[in-house]
Design a protein that fits this description.
By secondary structure, the protein is α/β, with parallel strands linked by helices. It contains eleven helices and twelve strands. The chain folds into two domains: 182 residues, Isopropylmalate Dehydrogenase (3-Layer(aba) Sandwich); 127 residues, 3-Layer(aba) Sandwich (Isopropylmalate Dehydrogenase), CATH 3.40.718.10. The strands form two sheets. An eight-stranded mixed beta sheet has the order 3-4-2-1-5-12-11-6. It has a four-stranded parallel beta sheet with strand order 7-10-8-9, with helices on both faces. It is elongated and about 60 Å long.
Amino acid sequence: MNTKIILIVLGEPNSTFSEILLKYFKKKKLKKIKKKIVLIGCFELFQKQMKFLNYKMPINKITKINDSLKGSINILNIDYKFKKPFSVISNFSNKYIEDCFKLSLKLIKNENIHALINGPISKKHFLKKKFPGITEYIAEKTNSKKPVMLIFNKNLAVNPLTTHIPIKRVSNLIKKNKIIDNVKQIDEFYKKKLGKIPKIAILGLNPHCESIDSISEEKKEIIPAVKYLINKKISVEGPIAADTFFLKKNIKKFDVVVGMYHDQVLTPAKTLFKFNAINVTIGLPFLKITPDHGPNFEMIGKNKSDPASIFYAFDFLNKIR
């Protein structure tokens, strides 16, 4: 049986991602990592960054994925012109990042790929307001209509029903069918990949799940969705007021919480788990994981970044089905 491959798109070249990967490879020792690891990005740049950060590891430039070796950093090269190992983030890297994603999506259709990990990108420069986030970017490139962002920690995962959008637009996007679709996909993911029937909490939108309006989002969209899901024998509860949900006595009852907007669930999740979480995109033709950190431009080249999220990503991939 062929060794499965973890494909890693290096993403924004001027980020802390190369540093974080190198910290993982050093700590875990490349020879002990069971799966082959193939990076997609600029070989020469990664080599220069490795030297700048003072890491010494076997690095293997390959032209096709079958040439990848266990116990080595394999890189499928994408050309990128640069002057220094690390620089400021700008539009200059956009074409390079796009080429990296194009190659990864081409490979993942035909090769023995276990999962895709993508490094951080700049929403301002790379996405240019065309997509709310990388979740939606990959979804469009793969013709996936209903991607679900799941920020996963084994103790509690969170799903924002709406992602990187202005707060003023959230209310109009709270829909019964969207809640149902998200919950059904999350439920299926837990059962198939983790062998577990998840207990799922659904938060309200308004403070205390109450509104001065005659018809609230809870009454119109959230409660009907919860009733539908219960009838489908999915383990859900809600709507639950967000202000007290994240108390320890409450969160220990659930595996997943679905919130109505991004910061409603990500702020408490990051407070609780720091970088011990990963962004899993459900609803694609393959499993995609993003370590839960951005480019972190303030820390670029300083070798002081917290690598916890990439450790969590690999630990997760070693455990799933």
